[in-house]
Design brief:
By secondary structure, the protein is mainly alpha-helical. The chain contains 6 helices and no strands. The two termini are 33 Å apart.
Length: 117
């Protein structure tokens, strides 16, 4: 199960990944894993899943988790994110706070990243 390190979709994915490790779900066959995941995500998440267009990947757990990640992250407005990054300057805060904020922006928007910090 390659989705263990998936960062997005935190509301559903993180608890599932933790549960899957503890319950050793990876020892089960893929269809069992998918059924267990779909049974555990809750009614609202199941409604979201039912609207995904996964085609022949509708029973592939990695594809389902990837779809949830895309759904939860949404689209990024590159123009706005570039503006936010370029307008960021130290505003009377400690340098460590400023650097942390820059790194956070960099991680969200790699195309707008600074030279290696």
């Amino acid at each position: 199960m390659s989705h263990r390190n998936t960062a997005g979709g935190g509301g559903i994915i993180t608890p599932w990944c933790n549960y899957a490790i503890v319950a050793r779900v990876d020892k089960q066959d893929p269809d069992y894993q998918t059924s267990l995941f779909l049974g555990q995500i809750g009614l609202e998440a199941l409604k979201i899943y039912n609207n995904f267009e996964l085609g022949n990947q509708s029973r592939n757990l990695d594809s389902i988790i990837e779809a949830f990640n895309k759904f939860s992250i949404g689209e990024i407005n590159e123009t706005y994110e570039s503006y936010v990054f370029n307008k960021r300057y130290q505003q009377g805060e400690k340098f460590e706070s400023f650097l942390g904020a820059c790194i956070s922006i960099e991680k969200k928007n790699p195309p707008y990243s600074c030279p290696s910090l």
